[in-house]
Model the fold of this input.
Amino acid sequence: MKNIPHDYYLRFVDAWVYEEVLDFHSKGNFTLHRAFKDRVGLHFLNEKQLVQLTGNELVLYPDMDLTVGFALPKEDIENHLSRNESCERFLSESLDFADVERLIFPLLSKEGGSYKRGYPSAGALYPAEIFICSLSNENTSWPEAGKILHLLPRSRKFEIMQGEADPELLKSAIMESANDIGSPSMAIIYVAYMPKSLFKYRYRGYRMSLMEIGSIYMLVELQAKSLGLACRLWSAYTDSMLCKVLGVNPALFFPMCVHFIGKRHETY
Ligand SMILES: Cc1cc2nc3c(=O)[nH]c(=O)nc-3n(C[C@H](O)[C@H](O)[C@H](O)COP(=O)(O)O)c2cc1C
Done:
């Protein structure tokens, strides 16, 4: 059996570990829906407190001057690898599918059949699944216009998701709270497939799947910069709504974060 069915992993999962991780993960769910708009809140911090508490670095000895500076030559500093800042507002423009392929390319296995990919994975389990969705109605260069694509990094192919992917439904699932970021052209959804994550490393697998997703989105950020595309990571969505649009079981597939990609609005 070369390509095993995804739920085959469940045979090797400890049910107790699985239930505890699912319970813990569920505590991090947001319910973002206009029906609950004035009924739920995340915190009671005011703007002043937020400004004070965010953007900080953690100095361990704030009362003592125990620091040394960087002594790098100017050319080293100028040539370093860097991502762009997150996009504040996207222009409403569709992306040519060739750009989508270029964007995703660094994640793939190299030609020649190695299972290794463009990003590392603890124990080569590769529990991170990547779904690609157009958010634009003018996506004529996309294969199977309107359908969500699931990346197969080793085969270097996209699998076409079979659900009815209505772009408006998709937008309402991921952009319910995103009124002021304009119109990103596409969304990449990073999902951890939990049975694959937990069958070997148990609770620690959860941590490893999150780190894998972080390394994937950083690679995408760097590639996006080189293609002149803008990005913004996004976690303000309701997991179950997103799984419904993808047509996957929310008890097995945990959508860890969304990456909006598009063209930057120059005035922002
Ligand atoms: C995992 C993750 C989730 C994020 N989710 C959101 C989000 O839901 N809404 C948002 O406005 N920004 C989100 N961001 C973007 C951060 O706010 C942003 O990265 C941070 O303010 C630093 O700014 P910079 O990306 O421009 O350097 C997210 C970033 C990460 C890494």
Remarks:
- The two ends are 52 Å apart (CA to CA).
- The CA atoms of residues 49 and 128 lie 35 Å apart.
- The chain has one domain: 9-264.
